[in-house]
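G., the chain you wanted modeled:
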Amino acid sequence: MKLRQIVLASTVVALSATAAQATTWRMATAYPEANFHTRNVNQFVQDIEQGTEGKLKINVHAAGSLIKHPEIKNAVRSRQIEMGEFLLSTLANEHAVFALESVPFLATSYEQSAKMYEVSKPYLNEALGKQRLKVLYSVAWPPQGLYTERPIENIEDLKGMKVRAYSPQTERFAQLAGAIPTQVEAADLAQAFTTGRVNAMVTSSSTGVNSAAWDYLTHYYDVSAFLPKNIVVVNQASFDSLDKDTQQVILDAAARAEERGWEMSKEEHDVQRKTLADNGIVIEAGSEQLNAAFREIGETMAAEWSKEAGKQGQEMLDAYRK
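Predicted structure as tokens:
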């Protein structure tokens, strides 16, 4: 065999071996490519591919294109996909621990939210671990504000309004405010508002910009109700099937993604508030009357959460309030 043929044959064999060793996973997220969470996810999977020298490739399916948001957690659990990102509070009906971070006016800043996450992390790991899910990282959304189609001076102005709900907490919040909660996913917001299904929402500056809220809303009240968190998980069996070096690459990339994501969230809030204003949204802090009523709702919901969570919930609250 000629030297050129030998080299060519060796190259083919080497490439075939590399292809055979490479593993491809699928990851689902509910948010569009432009969203900072998705940009962070894309960097996370790039870090993994580079760190494993191509041994592990993860294809990200954004904007609910592969799995719709409510099904992402169970899709990872059943190993339909290997990784997924979802809003933690959407699991609130499963376990009280998932609802803590979305109790309004309990943790209203990044510092408070980070402390709450550290306190709740062992409980989150335990609850999700029982479902064969391994927590990789979590990132807070910017503080949640109130978007409306007209000025709101007091809580009575919300009565009868159809408010978009995306979790049990936002649904309860709307109910206590006298509004009508309506479940709408982030990807469907524009259609929901233009068809009149909803006419107000409690969400972040990011979601307001991603959904071009200025096309159908006029006001944004930056009341910093709470900072909900997205969480990224991997199927435990899928993770365990990898060699130790690859597992460590994933964990290291996850640690960087968590740190990077929180910084991106802070920057996002400042930038997106300006974008909202530049597009005609009136940004206000809300009247003292309105904020006082919101704080009362928060106290009611905190008491309800504590009762539901029982001893474990009290442990978390005590640790958080230290």
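The first strand starts at residue 23 and ends at 28.

Shout if anything looks off.
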